[in-house]
């Protein structure tokens, strides 16, 4: 049985109940998420061949500090970086280091800022210089998967409708959907209920209700969906070493659909890719 609770009276931990937020929370999330989106916009000019991911991570930390925000990943369960940088066959949770990016790489940069107690969580893919058409196509499919999942969000639908929209499209494009990681509730907590699976059936999962806030963050592989976590306990990679991509938005369920809190203010939701038509 799924329980829903007014966020204002909920305990400050994930109890399994789904929080329902009010307009004040939506206002706070807009600010936190837009700060994250602005940081990701700025990174479009920084990501290039020869730049170590530690440089990216340092920028994320300093940008947050300059704007009164703290990176949620820093010191989270022992994680010691301000962002995640996942390159090529790394699915998620790649740890920034001093190794430089190379021409032809694709990298996901995942940033979450805590601003006035609210968590703004988003990630984007960045091509490093000129990339192969197969990599560009993966980015296009992954972004479209995200947006199709978002389009399924409305009161009365179920979380499975999000997963079905993503899975149907991605697999129809001869890609695979990672099962081992999912989206999640977010807001006053970094990770909360419900889990948002990126595969499934339209009638599966909890009912979506106005006031829910969560991330949608599909991880799409060119090869098979299977992943493994490396010995550092964080870095997840494709088992067949095929390319993987991910885009992530934080959304809030409204009376008529949803609001995307993390949209790029500079129109850079797909940095390095051709503009969408129409």
TrEMBL record:
Q: Name one Pfam family in it.
A: Peptidase_M24
Instruction: Cite the entry's keywords alphabetically.
Output: Aminopeptidase, Hydrolase, Metal-binding, Protease
Q: Which cofactor does it need?
A: Co(2+); Zn(2+); Mn(2+); Fe(2+)
As its record notes, the protein acts as a catalyst of: Release of N-terminal amino acids, preferentially methionine, from peptides and arylamides
Annotated a divalent metal cation 1 binding sites:
110, 121, 248
Its Enzyme Commission number?
3.4.11.18
Q: Where on this chain does substrate bind? A: 93, 191
Superkingdom of origin organism: Bacteria
In its UniProt record, a GO molecular function of this protein is: metalloaminopeptidase activity
**GO BP annotation list:** proteolysis
Its cellular-component GO annotations read: cytosol
Chain positions recorded as a divalent metal cation 2 binding sites = 121, 184, 217, 248
User: What are the Peptidase M24 domain coordinates in residue numbering?
Assistant: 28-255
Q: How is the cofactor bound?
A: Binds 2 divalent metal cations per subunit. Has a high-affinity and a low affinity metal-binding site. The true nature of the physiological cofactor is under debate. The enzyme is active with cobalt, zinc, manganese or divalent iron ions. Most likely, methionine aminopeptidases function as mononuclear Fe(2+)-metalloproteases under physiological conditions, and the catalytically relevant metal-binding site has been assigned to the histidine-containing high-affinity site.
As for what it does, the entry says:
Removes the N-terminal methionine from nascent proteins. The N-terminal methionine is often cleaved when the second residue in the primary sequence is small and uncharged (Met-Ala-, Cys, Gly, Pro, Ser, Thr, or Val). Requires deformylation of the N(alpha)-formylated initiator methionine before it can be hydrolyzed.
Q: Which PANTHER family match?
A: METHIONINE AMINOPEPTIDASE
Family assignment from sequence similarity = Belongs to the peptidase M24A family. Methionine aminopeptidase type 1 subfamily.
Subunit field text? Monomer.
Q: What is this protein called?
A: Methionine aminopeptidase
This protein's species is Rhizobium lusitanum
Lineage of the source organism? Bacteria, Pseudomonadati, Pseudomonadota, Alphaproteobacteria, Hyphomicrobiales
């Amino acid at each position: 049985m799924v329980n829903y609770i007014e966020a204002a009276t909920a305990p400050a931990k994930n109890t399994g109940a789904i929080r329902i937020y009010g307009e004040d929370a939506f206002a706070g999330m807009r600010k936190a998420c837009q700060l994250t989106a602005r940081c990701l916009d700025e990174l479009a000019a920084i990501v290039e061949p020869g730049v170590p991911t530690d440089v990216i991570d340092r920028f994320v930390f300093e940008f947050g500090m300059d704007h009164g925000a703290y990176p949620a990943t820093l010191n989270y369960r022992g994680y010691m970086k301000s962002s995640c940088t996942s390159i090529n066959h790394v699915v998620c949770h790649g740890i920034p280091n001093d190794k430089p990016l190379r021409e032809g790489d694709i990298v996901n940069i995942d940033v979450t800022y805590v601003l006035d107690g609210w968590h703004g969580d988003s990630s984007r893919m960045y091509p490093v210089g000129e990339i192969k058409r197969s990599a560009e196509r993966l980015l296009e499919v992954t972004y479209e998967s995200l947006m199709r999942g978002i389009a399924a969000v409305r009161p009365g639908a179920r979380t499975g409708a999000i997963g079905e929209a993503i899975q149907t499209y991605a697999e129809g494009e001869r890609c695979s959907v990672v099962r081992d990681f999912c989206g999640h509730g977010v807001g006053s907590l970094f990770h909360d209920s419900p889990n948002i699976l990126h595969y499934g059936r339209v009638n599966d999962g909890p009912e979506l209700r106005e006031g829910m806030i969560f991330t949608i963050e599909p991880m799409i592989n060119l090869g098979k969906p299977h992943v493994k976590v490396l010995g550092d306990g964080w870095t997840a990679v494709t088992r067949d070493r095929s390319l993987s991509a991910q885009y992530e938005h934080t959304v809030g369920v409204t009376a008529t659909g949803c609001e995307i809190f993390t949209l790029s203010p500079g129109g850079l939701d797909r940095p390095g890719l051709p503009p969408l038509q129409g």
